[in-house]
Structure formats: C-alpha cells, structure tokens
C-alpha cells in the first residue's frame, strides 16, 4: 500500500477508535488537559498536536525497523507502570493534593495560580485576574493585582507564559501513546508491516487525525464543565491508573500466581496427544480474548502450542509470553505453532500485547 492509502486506512481506524475504545481509555487525560480553562480551544489544540506528533514519530520508527523495533513485553510493562504512576499524580492533583501540585507545571500570571485577563492595562491601573482551577477547581476569582508600567521584557514574556500554559496539555496528549486501545495496536501492526518510515508515519498520523474530531468535541464539552468535571476526571484517572498498572504487571509477569487451573471440559477440548506422543495445546486468539484462557496440561512431555485465529484484528493478534520475553504476531486468519519444549511443573502465562487479556497453562 502507498502512503495515501495507508493514511486513509489509519484515519478510518482512528475514527472508529475515537467513537469507541480510545476516547473511553484516554478521556481522563483529555479532561486533565482542559481543566481550569475558560477557553478550551488552546489546550485541546496542544493536546491533539502532541498526540499527532508522537503517533507519527512512533509510526515512522515502527515502519523503519519493522517488528524488530518493538520493545519486549517486560519493557512495555515497565513503561505502563510508569504511565500508571503519572496518571496517579494527575488524579491527586485534580483532587487538590498539595504535595503533588508542587511537582506539576502551572501557568504563570498576574497572581499565584491565575492568569491576567486580556483587558489588563499595560500602563498603570488595577488589573483583573481570573483564577485557574489549576490552583483550585472551586476558585472563581482572586485579589486584584496592581500592574505597573510594563517593561519591554515583561511584554515579551507574555507569549512565553502562553507556551508554559500549553506544556501540560501537550504532555498529556503525548502520554496517550502509553495507553493504547485495541484499535491502536491494530494501527501499529499495520505500521510495522508497511516496513517504511513514510508508510508507518502515514498510518499513525492518519490514526491520530481520524480520532481528532471526537477528541475535539469531547474536549470542548469538558472545558465548559471546568470545575464540576474535576472530581469526575480524578476518579476516572484513578480507575485508568489501576487498570494500566494491572496491564503492566501482567506484561512483566509480576503478578502472584492464583493457583487455579483449567476445567476438565476445557482441557479435554484443547489438550491432546498426536501420533508421535507430542502434547498439542490449542488456544484460539479472538478479538475479545483467548479461548480457552486457562488450561491444565501434563508436565515433562514435549509440547507444542497451537494458536489459531479467524478474522482476528485486535491486540490479541500479538501473543505475549512474559517469562520468555517473546511477542508473536499472529495472522488475521491461520494457525501458528510454538514449540514449548518439555515444560517443567509450573505455570506458563500469556497475555495480549497491551496486557488486557491474560491466560495461562498450568503444567502438572
């Protein structure tokens, strides 16, 4: 496929993701970008611009190096855990936790936590300033500040203040790449298979552009709610942080064992012996998870894992074995065989590329 066709494919995927999974996953980040803003146009634009830039760069790297560039599951697990920590910080900031507020950037203005309004006179007089909810979601005004004759350097610093005000939404927009939904993974797979930096960038740029209209509308609505949205956004961020942390722990293989095994019916249907005595374990990779997800097999027997797909397009196409630091990209339709050797007693965990759909094979 050429670059325009790849861009169109990415845009179609991005539009679908915008109205379904991606907006739901990344809504809390978008709400954090526009909170406290009387006019959400600027922060939404910074959020979307950073999201577009980061996705395009990621696509170029994926296309240039193909599948070899993708970090291993444990590296992705560490990144997701760090992303969860960042989301927790933003949630605590929205809830007014003072120690966290000192760590996060603030817009500078005529008074602490406020921006001087556009109609402040530059030569004498009393300036009006409007409090931003970055300091307190419930604040609506602050004490008037006298504005003295402005020096040229003071006037020149105004654009710099606006740039500082865009740092937070831009950082949050860039952070969306750390919270991929299933359709994001599909776009990334398409970028990898393009094996071209231009093609990969076209796919991911199209993905970001396709989702931009929905993100823009949601951001504008969130901006109008301002302070009333802060507690809701904080709760959503806490939920997403926990979900992200769980995905990271799954990818790293760091969750404690639960001790459960597969049911007799699932084992009978999915585990068998062939004529040579090799143990065959069959798992279906579906868009909504692996079936069966929990199995029990015999240890000490040469084992082959058979992964089957049928019209599978989600992130379950990337089958991850954390203990072996292995990612397997499965075809949309077909069968992939993985030689597991002769497993010892224990549990072999597997999970999709984003850490959302786990499974395991217990060898006894």
Automatic annotation (TrEMBL):
<dbReference type="InterPro" id="IPR008972">
    <property type="entry name" value="Cupredoxin"/>
</dbReference>
<feature type="domain" description="Urease accessory protein UreH-like transmembrane">
    <location>
        <begin position="164"/>
        <end position="233"/>
    </location>
</feature>
<feature type="transmembrane region" description="Helical">
    <location>
        <begin position="6"/>
        <end position="32"/>
    </location>
</feature>
<feature type="domain" description="EfeO-type cupredoxin-like">
    <location>
        <begin position="272"/>
        <end position="360"/>
    </location>
</feature>
<keyword id="KW-0812">Transmembrane</keyword>
<feature type="transmembrane region" description="Helical">
    <location>
        <begin position="229"/>
        <end position="249"/>
    </location>
</feature>
<keyword id="KW-0472">Membrane</keyword>
<dbReference type="InterPro" id="IPR028096">
    <property type="entry name" value="EfeO_Cupredoxin"/>
</dbReference>
<dbReference type="Pfam" id="PF13386">
    <property type="entry name" value="DsbD_2"/>
</dbReference>
<feature type="transmembrane region" description="Helical">
    <location>
        <begin position="170"/>
        <end position="192"/>
    </location>
</feature>
<feature type="transmembrane region" description="Helical">
    <location>
        <begin position="44"/>
        <end position="65"/>
    </location>
</feature>
<protein>
    <recommendedName>
        <fullName>Sulfite exporter TauE/SafE family protein</fullName>
    </recommendedName>
</protein>
<feature type="transmembrane region" description="Helical">
    <location>
        <begin position="198"/>
        <end position="222"/>
    </location>
</feature>
<dbReference type="Pfam" id="PF13473">
    <property type="entry name" value="Cupredoxin_1"/>
</dbReference>
<dbReference type="InterPro" id="IPR039447">
    <property type="entry name" value="UreH-like_TM_dom"/>
</dbReference>
<feature type="transmembrane region" description="Helical">
    <location>
        <begin position="77"/>
        <end position="97"/>
    </location>
</feature>
<keyword id="KW-1133">Transmembrane helix</keyword>
């Amino acid at each position: 496929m050429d670059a325009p066709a790849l861009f169109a494919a990415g845009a179609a995927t991005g539009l679908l993701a915008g109205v379904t999974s991606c907006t739901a996953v990344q809504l809390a980040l978008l709400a954090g970008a526009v909170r406290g803003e009387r006019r959400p146009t600027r922060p939404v634009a910074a959020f979307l611009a950073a999201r577009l830039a980061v996705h395009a760069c990621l696509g170029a790297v994926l296309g240039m190096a193909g599948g070899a560039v993708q970090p291993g599951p444990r590296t992705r697990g560490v990144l997701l855990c760090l992303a969860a920590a960042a989301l927790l910080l933003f949630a605590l900031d929205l809830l007014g936790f003072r120690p966290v507020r000192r760590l996060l950037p603030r817009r500078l203005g005529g008074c602490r936590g406020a921006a001087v309004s556009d109609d402040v006179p530059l030569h004498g007089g009393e300036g009006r300033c409007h409090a931003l909810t970055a300091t307190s979601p419930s604040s609506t005004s602050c004490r008037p500040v006298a504005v003295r004759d402005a020096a040229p350097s003071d006037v020149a610093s105004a654009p710099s203040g606006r740039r500082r005000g865009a740092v937070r939404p831009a950082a949050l927009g860039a952070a969306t790449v750390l919270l991929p939904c299933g359709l994001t993974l599909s776009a990334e797979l398409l970028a990898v298979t393009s094996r071209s930096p231009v093609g990969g960038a076209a796919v991911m740029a199209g993905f970001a552009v396709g989702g931009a209209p929905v993100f823009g509308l949601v951001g504008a609505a969130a901006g109008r709610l301002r302070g009333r949205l802060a507690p809701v956004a904080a709760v959503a961020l806490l939920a997403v942080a926990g979900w992200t942390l769980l995905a990271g722990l799954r990818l790293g293989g760091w969750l404690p064992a639960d001790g459960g095994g597969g049911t007799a019916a699932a084992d009978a249907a999915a585990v068998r012996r062939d004529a040579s005595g090799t143990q065959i374990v069959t798992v279906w990779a579906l868009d909504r998870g692996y079936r069966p997800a929990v199995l029990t097999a015999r240890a000490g027997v040469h084992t082959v894992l058979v992964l089957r797909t049928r019209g599978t397009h989600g992130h379950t196409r990337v089958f991850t074995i954390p203990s072996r630091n292995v990612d397997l990209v499965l075809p949309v339709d077909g069968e992939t065989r993985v030689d597991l050797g002769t497993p010892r007693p224990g549990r072999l965990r597997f999970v999709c590329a984003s850490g959302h759909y786990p499974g395991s094979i217990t060898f006894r």
